[in-house]
UniProtKB/TrEMBL annotation:
Domain Glycosyl hydrolases family 2 sugar binding: 53-185
Catalytic activity: Hydrolysis of terminal non-reducing beta-D-galactose residues in beta-D-galactosides
Residue ranges of every copy of the Glycoside hydrolase family 2 catalytic domain listed in the record: 285-498
Coiled coil: none
Gene Ontology MF term list: hydrolase activity
Cited SUPFAM superfamilies: (Trans)glycosidases (SSF51445), beta-Galactosidase/glucuronidase domain (SSF49303), Galactose mutarotase-like (SSF74650), Galactose-binding domain-like (SSF49785)
Protein name, per record: beta-galactosidase
Membership in a protein family: Belongs to the glycosyl hydrolase 2 family.
UniProt KW keywords: Calcium, Glycosidase, Hydrolase, Signal
The EC number(s) this enzyme carries: 3.2.1.23
Cofactor(s) annotated in UniProt: Ca(2+)
Length: 907
């Protein structure tokens, strides 16, 4: 846990001594999913219905084995009659008499009728994601036991609530899913605290304290040092010119303690955490925080865990924020409802911009219900400095009658947006193509900030396409960034299906991380693309250019560590470099003091660390070229001469106990074996997206080698192959070829190999994750070993990295079977290794479809990009488009060239 979080928890404890006799918060439930308290419970329908038992509170009852699982698109997702009946007994000490006792519910899905000792506490509360309270002082039996009864309807009697909350593209749960507690207040107390603290040190607070003589506010910094005091009645104003502004890079927090005085005595004390910061929406310009124009590197986040649904703990929230920060994001959108208070606490402390959202998903609350819930949202969330936007619903779920109420309830007057609409000068339209230039989007006049883009279904989107989008966003003065969809796969534990994990097929498989935060390849691509320190290596040696994409931080606050690695026996070397003085949004250089023999190493890496000791990214670059590595790893000499035999259009070759058969008609390898047995690599090389017209093959000896090669013919056989067999049994393939189309995704060769025989692969190149043409970032160059798996991204068992797919910058690879193996080396730079074909995924629009060539193992100079749920691959930007190749002249000088060495010795 960071020092900042430790300070935060200490600050929460500081007021205890002063407040213990003035205010008490007594939990009737647990504080979250990790310390829930059992209450009596009966569910009316579905699993385990019709009997009294117990259930942990807080919780979602489906995850405890009750009711029915519903995804929001299900026909009965807002029509069921499912209800939960809760009972809980609690004591009310006699000393509480004469005080104000409120019962507070952090969140109940969805309608809640509350009774205390058989009497209604108030009107039925409708709306799942909002904290609400009742004054139950008159209903309690002081000095004795009290009975709390809560009847919860999973689906609301108010159809507008169902339309806003229950028919969305997410799982629908029921239950008391957030904590329940009692607020014990003195009869004369402070309530409804509203703070507006600006970046220039201006501080204003309004609160409700009828009958008070005065209110005194004391402001403390993060280590408890008093900054000053203010006094007034129900409105206080002052200035703290030395205050440090809050921003997500340096989230400086303060604490204000309010004392209510009457006749010279303190009647009540409350405290709030806050930050000094200013948010401005400058029309046709941008979003400014503390006078700095900012861009959102954001993600949409649901409150979710597979075992507990929407019921989370404080540690869950911290974990989520840490992961989001680790991807170098600076913003998070609450989709599509307000979060737990501890999530906002973590955003305040660790530093994230937040877009907080009133629920609505194609449908919206009626005006009366919406106004009430909006007031509850504001009372709960408005003092958090991390919140810089309010969102009124989502994707058409906007009640425009509520827009003015955001300003009425918010003393900070933060901007309001309508996700999926142009509203208030901010175009938030979702899932627009890279080249979309209609109206107010890329070529318009308004601020552009898509609240959802690059919908990450399975392995598409997220990191795939992000580099193109982000470079355009970064350089466009009207872009305010955007928010990816979404953070984590929503796979729920199905108590009715042997505790299996269910994403409702493709609908919940949208995350950058898995349901238990397993990291996909896009996680690392985003981390590199959104790093605030962009690094470019200049030629050889230790010279780099740095671009500072922080908004507030000078790079002299960062740390730079370098290392050299050799795969040929040199001892590793490492060191640090002094951080250069580069201001935000400026460029500069970095020079590493590498040893004089640095060029004898294979890899140079540069780790960039921020001022909180968080790794921003570790960049790696190869020093040695593929041909250099290949030459030191292969063996060409052998003791015996090469044996050759021709039969039935096949050329049978034996060299050093390795047996090879070539088809003299097409130049392909047909049979391979060594002393350990057969190697089932066959039916290749077959050109992908090229003419397989190797012809007029001949063979001859050159010194101690045997050469088998095709004959060039400008019209009929312009693709050529040349095999060289060395006495060691090493086989060299030299290929010259033209892709058959000017624009194509694929160029290279394929072989067949039985997938069931593959056990693992060890290779030198980028890893350990697979890549796509439009997702090359996020990898490390080195030597990797991967055990075979059949993992599909976003599906059980979420084992990453995936084995199948494209792997970049291949130098060599060893393919392991039971009892045998073979190795392939290359002289060719920028080569891709393709390992088998993941299960085919598609959608009704055929956007996502990952494309793979024929065969099983491929060596390629061009690979496919990938689409998203809502966009075809070629509409995610230039990297998503096909390659362009020369093919008109069909001259050998213009051909693509590939050199591979095959070691079939099994040694």
């Amino acid at each position: 846990m960071s020092n900042r979080l430790n300070i935060w928890f200490l600050l929460l404890l500081l007021p205890c001594v002063a407040l213990c006799q003035q205010k008490e918060k007594r939990y009737l439930s647990g504080t979250g999913s990790d310390d829930a308290v059992n209450w009596e419970f009966r569910c009316t329908d579905g699993m385990n219905a019709g009997k009294w038992t117990t259930i942990p509170v807080p919780s979602c009852w489906e995850l405890q084995g009750f009711g029915k699982y519903n995804y929001g698109f299900a026909k009965d997702s807002a029509r069921g009659k499912e209800k939960g009946l809760y009972r809980h007994r609690f004591a009310a000490p006699a000393a509480w008499k004469g005080k104000v006792i409120n019962i507070v519910f952090g969140g109940v899905m969805t309608d809640a009728e509350v009774k205390v000792n058989g009497k209604l506490a108030g009107a039925v509360h409708q709306g799942a994601f909002y904290a609400f309270r009742y004054d139950i002082s008159r209903l309690l039996r002081y000095g004795g036991d009290n009975l709390l009864e809560v009847t919860v309807a999973k689906h609301s009697a108010n159809e507008s609530v169902n339309a806003a909350e229950r028919r969305g593209d997410f799982w629908i749960f029921g239950g008391i899913f957030r904590p329940v507690w009692l607020e014990v207040l003195p009869a004369q107390h402070i309530s409804d605290v509203r703070i507006n603290a600006l970046a220039d040190g201006t501080f204003e607070a309004s609160l409700t304290a009828p009958g008070a003589d005065s209110i005194v506010a004391a402001v403390y910094d993060a280590v408890g040092t008093l900054q000053g005091r203010l006094s007034g009645q129900q409105h206080l104003k002052g200035n703290f010119p030395s205050a440090q502004p809050w921003n997500p890079e340096t989230p400086v927090l303060y604490k204000v303690v309010f004392d209510r005085y009457k006749n010279g005595k303190i009647q009540h004390t409350v405290y709030e955490r806050f930050g000094f910061r200013t948010v401005q929406l400058r029309q046709r310009d941008g979003i400014y925080v503390n006078g700095v124009k900012v861009k959102m590197k954001g993600v949409n986040r649901h409150s979710f865990r597979p075992e507990t649904g929407r019921t989370l703990s404080r540690l869950n929230s911290i974990e989520d924020v840490q992961l989001i920060k680790d991807m170098n994001m600076n913003a998070v959108r609450m989709s599509h409802y307000p979060p737990d208070d501890h999530f906002l606490d973590a955003c305040d402390s660790l530093g994230l911009f937040v877009m907080d959202e009133l629920a609505g998903w194609h449908g919206n609350y009626d005006s009366i219900t919406g106004a009430k819930l909006l007031q509850e949202l504001m009372a709960h969330d408005r003092n958090h400095p991390s919140i810089i936007f309010w969102a009124n619903g989502n994707e058409g779920g906007h009640n425009i009658a509520l827009d003015s109420l955001f300003g009425a309830f918010d003393p900070q007057q933060r901007p309001v947006v309508h996700p999926w609409e142009l509203y208030n000068g901010v175009e938030t339209q979702h899932y627009r193509e890279y080249q979309y230039g209609i109206g107010n989007y890329n070529q318009g006049n308004e601020i552009v900030m898509p609240t959802e883009f690059l919908h990450g279904q399975f392995d598409g989107g997220h990191g795939a396409g992000l580099q193109d989008y982000w470079e355009m966003m970064w350089r466009d003065p009207l872009s305010a960034g955007g928010f990816l969809w979404d953070f984590a796969d929503q796979a729920v534990v199905r108590k009715d299906k042997n505790d299996s994990l269910d994403t409702d097929k493709h609908r919940g498989a949208d995350g950058i991380v898995g349901p238990h935060h397993e990291k996909e390849g896009s996680y690392f691509a985003i981390k590199e693309i959104w790093s605030p320190v962009q690094v470019t290596r200049l030629g050889g040696g230790g010279s780099f250019t740095l671009e500072n994409r922080y908004h507030y931080t000078n790079l002299k606050a960062c740390k730079f560590r370098w290392s050299l690695k050799s795969f040929a026996g040199l001892a590793p070397a490492s060191g640090t470099a002094p951080a250069p003085d580069i201001k935000p949004l400026q460029n500069g250089s970095l020079q590493l003091d590498l040893p004089g023999n640095w060029y004898h190493y294979d890899v140079v890496s540069l780790q960039v660390i921020d001022h909180t000791d968080r790794e921003l990214f570790t960049h790696t670059w190869p020093i040695s070229r593929p041909a250099e590595v290949t030459q030191r790893m292969i063996t060409t000499a052998g003791a015996k001469s090469i044996e050759v035999k021709e039969a039935d259009s096949l050329l049978h070759v034996t060299a050093n106990n390795i047996r090879l058969s070539f088809h003299l008609g097409n130049g392909g390898l047909t049979n391979i074996s060594n002393e350990r047995g057969p190697i089932p690599l066959s039916n290749g090389p077959l050109l992908q997206d090229g003419e397989n017209h190797f012809s007029k093959l001949t063979y001859h000896r050159e010194d101690s080698t045997l050469v088998v090669e095709s004959t060039f013919d400008r019209a009929k056989a312009y693709n050529t192959i040349r095999w060289t067999i060395y006495p060691s049994g090493l086989l060299k393939m030299e290929l010259r070829y033209f892709p058959e189309a000017y624009f194509t995704f694929f160029s290279g060769i394929n072989f067949h190999f039985p997938e069931k025989m593959m056990r693992s692969v060890k290779y030198m190149g980028d890893g350990p994750y697979r890549v796509w043409k439009n997702r090359m970032k996020g990898q490390q160059f080195g030597v990797w070993e991967k055990t075979y798996n059949n993992t599909e991204t976003g599906e059980y068992p979420w084992v990453y990295p995936e084995f199948k797919g494209y792997h970049a910058h291949l130098y060599w690879a060893q393919f392991n079977m039971d009892g045998n193996h073979f190795r392939v080396f290359t002289d060719t730079e920028n080569l891709f290794l393709r390992l088998f074909t993941p299960a085919w995924k598609t959608d009704q629009w055929h956007n996502y479809e990952p494309l793979f060539p024929a065969g099983d193992i491929s060596f390629l100079q061009g690979i496919s990009s990938i689409g998203t749920k809502t966009q075809r691959n070629e509409t995610t930007g230039p990297m998503g488009q096909r390659y362009g190749f020369y093919d008109y002249e069909k001259e050998p000088a213009r051909a693509l060239k590939m050199i591979l060495y095959f070691d079939f010795s099994g040694k």
